Amino acid sequence: MGRRLLCLVCSLLLAGGLVGCAPTKKQVTYLDVFDTVCTVTAYGARDEEFQQLHEELVRYHRLFDIYNTYEGLPNLKTVNDAAGQPVAVDGAIIDLLTFCQDVYTLTAGKVNVLLGSVLALWHDAREREVLPSAAALQAAAAHTDPAGLVIDRAAGTVQLTDPAARLDVGAVAKGFATQRVADFAREELGWTSALLDIGGNVCAIGGKGDASFVIGIQNPDQSSVLPYVQKVAVRDVSVVTSGDYQRYVELDGTRYHHIIDPTTLWPATYAHSVTVICRDSGWADALSTALFCLPQQMGAALLEQVEGAAALWVLADGSQVCSKGFEAYSSS
Ligand code: AMP
Ligand code: MG
Asked: Is the pTM here over 0.85, yes or no?
């Protein structure tokens, strides 16, 4: 074979990825799902696969949306609007709400998706920059009993038995959906190396080739010159942070953020942020919210009940505490 022909064949093989070259990296950012910025990075994936993955994200976004309805698609807003009546829903909603019941049990009520009536008052407070009254919070809290959610898997329906009760799945839905979409990417698309960053809920599929993905954990002190408090090196796990810097209103010098302690009905004050690393993205999301609503040691005790879960707290005084097992992920 002449030298020029040999060169041409080598170039073609390289372009086709047949000679041990690294798979091509592709990254796409979506702004139309979960009201946040979602960035999907995958190695060796095709454009049509990205499209399929995006369709899955949109499907879960619409099903779990509590603010908008979609023609012909009963979703969680439909369930809230129909409170008192059963609503026939997609199996993914039944699975999500069943998961939420498990979350309520494991977290002893610290994460309660039936807190919607209370959370709506805090949502309004942030928008209007006026604190809710204690009386309004107490009145809303009378409609947060988790027993008021009836799931009939056989009939394919869910029902809020209390007409004044409201679901708010903000603490778990992104993580639950991320896990579902990651499973789809692995099982249906055959992805082996990808990172799904769904508004900071990060899920690693495999690693970055033989290496791990390195993820920066955001510094909750946004006035600091250090953007990250730590970096972690991960593969095949999820990393989720709950923080007081993500959504808040500041009134008279006090920050009122979006994670509400069901015991006090006010924003939890134990930590500035809690990051949880564990295999399942739904549990990572649920646990980060739960630990945010607990004193650090109680959170650590809860974490021990979930195999392989690790956490990093940035406490109210700015100090950092790691759970057992967290250091294994530390990256310089
Ligand atoms: P995350 O950022 O995952 O910690 O979730 C925060 C979101 O979950 C909030 O914006 C609310 O929609 C909702 N939420 C806040 N506090 C709670 C709570 N204690 N239990 C259930 N959902 C909550
Ligand atoms: Mg959460």
From this structure: yes
